[in-house]
Amino acid sequence: MEIATLLGDADAFHAWYQPVVDVSTGMPVGYEALLHATDAGTPVPAGVLFEAASAAGRLADLDRIAREVAIRDAAPWLGAALLFVKIAVPAGDLPAGWLDSTQAVAVAAGVSLRQVVLEVVQPPPGEPLERTARVVIRCRGAACQVALVGAGDAAVVRSLVGALLPDFVTLDRSVVARLPEPDAVSTARALVREAAAGSARVIAFGVETQAQAAAVAELGVPWAPGWLYGRPRRPG
């Protein structure tokens, strides 16, 4: 696969979607978009695409395409559901105007930007919070909602939620994977408490078993995606 050539062909890309469901009813409330591509008739999954783009110094280009394609492909069937799209580029490396084309595609497709939830990865230790704050401010300026991804430490969530005021906080998959083990339940309960203190809605990504689902419901987490509720698929 030649990533530079692929990036020049917008029609090579398409999105798969995994449902985000209301834990109490099992009904979809949104969808998380995952970028895929076809190269000379061969399917290329998201992980391979982003690894190749990163190695070639083209991660920001692929990140932009992922948002555009997610909105473009969801527009015919999304209705009033939310659309979750991850920002794959570190906050300090996003180029100027990084969200402009996303806004333009949403307007052209007739998708409300308020339905678009941009997943911002929490900054690693030592990274200035100002970089992530600028990303969140830009998202809000575009009328998008924000999900803070990767919550695994209650003290960190407390400081980030208080500073960034995200609409959603997603439990780290490593925490969800260990439910209903007592230490994981304790960790998740603390995370839920801190997120709720900042008025953020909690989402448990990666629910794959009935035991995990029961633990998530017991913790009062309202929404979750995961293979238990539906695998990613391409519409149509």
Count of individual beta strands: 9
Tell me which oligomeric state these chains represent: single chain
Largest sheet: 9 strands, mixed
- End-to-end Cα distance: 26 Å
* CATH-assigned homologous superfamily: EAL domain
CATH topology: TIM Barrel
CATH architecture: Alpha-Beta Barrel
What would the principal axes of the Cα set say about the shape? globular
Radius of gyration, whole Å: 17 Å
- The secondary structure category is alpha/beta
**Count of DSSP H/I helices:** 9
**Tell me, what is the CATH class?**
Alpha Beta
Could you report the average pLDDT, rounded to the nearest whole number?
A: 94
Low-confidence blocks of residues: none
Approximate helicity band: 40-55%
Proportion of residues in β-strands:
15-25%
Order of secondary-structure elements: HEEEHHEHEHEHEHHEHE
Estimate nothing, just give the exact number of structural domains: 1
Question: What does this entry look like structurally?
Answer:
This protein is of the alpha/beta class. The chain has one domain: Alpha-Beta Barrel (TIM Barrel), CATH 3.20.20. It is built from nine helices and nine strands. It has helices at 3-7, 46-55, 59-74, 100-109, 129-141, 154-164, 173-178, 182-197, 210-218; strands at residues 13-22, 28-39, 42-44, 82-86, 116-121, 145-151, 168-171, 201-204, 223-225. Strands 1, 2, 3, 4, 5, 6, 7, 8 and 9 form a nine-stranded mixed beta sheet that branches. The longest helix is centred in the N-terminal third of the chain and has 16 residues, at 59-74.
